[in-house]
Amino acid sequence: MQSSTTSSSSEVVYGERNSVAGSDESRVMSEKVQIMASSIYKEFELMIRKFGEESVKELMPLVVNVLESLDLSYLEKEEHLVDLEMLKEDNEQLMNQHEREKQLRKSQDQKCLEIEDSLMEQVRDLENKIESLESITRMLELKAKNA
């Protein structure tokens, strides 16, 4: 927090000192905070006219700090809302991908079951053929023995 007195008057100006070289000080405060700051400024002007500058000397830096913090909170809230929207979109895409993969898996499982059933039927058919061929072989062996 910086306090300076202008040379042309005894007016005290409050503001945050630029602590990081090259940081962007040109960012505009949110509209809500600007409206609040304007209302508070008018009230401070009335208090200064009625009670003098000393009446707000201690309070002014605190109010400026609160308004700056409030504006920063609004900015962070907007950033969080953007992040939230992006996360919702990511979540929706992931849910869609999950659903597609689940359907694909279900389809593949169904195909595997069908193939397994088909193979089991082929095994039964082949076992029946083997049994039939063994029976024919025994019968032919008996005929050959009798002949």
UniProtKB/TrEMBL annotation:
One matching Pfam family: RH1
RH1 domain boundaries: 16-104
Record-level Gene Ontology MF annotations: JUN kinase binding; kinesin binding; MAP-kinase scaffold activity; signaling receptor complex adaptor activity
Parts forming coiled coils: 77-143
Coiled coil in keyword set: yes
Assigned keywords, A-Z: Coiled coil
Chain intervals with Low complexity compositional bias: 1-10
GO BP term, example: vesicle-mediated transport
KW Coiled coil (keyword) present: yes
InterPro entries for the chain: JIP3/JIP4 (IPR039911), RH1 (IPR034743)
Highest taxon of the lineage: Eukaryota
Region (Disordered): 1-28
GO cellular component: cytoplasm
Name listed for the protein in its UniProt record: RH1 domain-containing protein
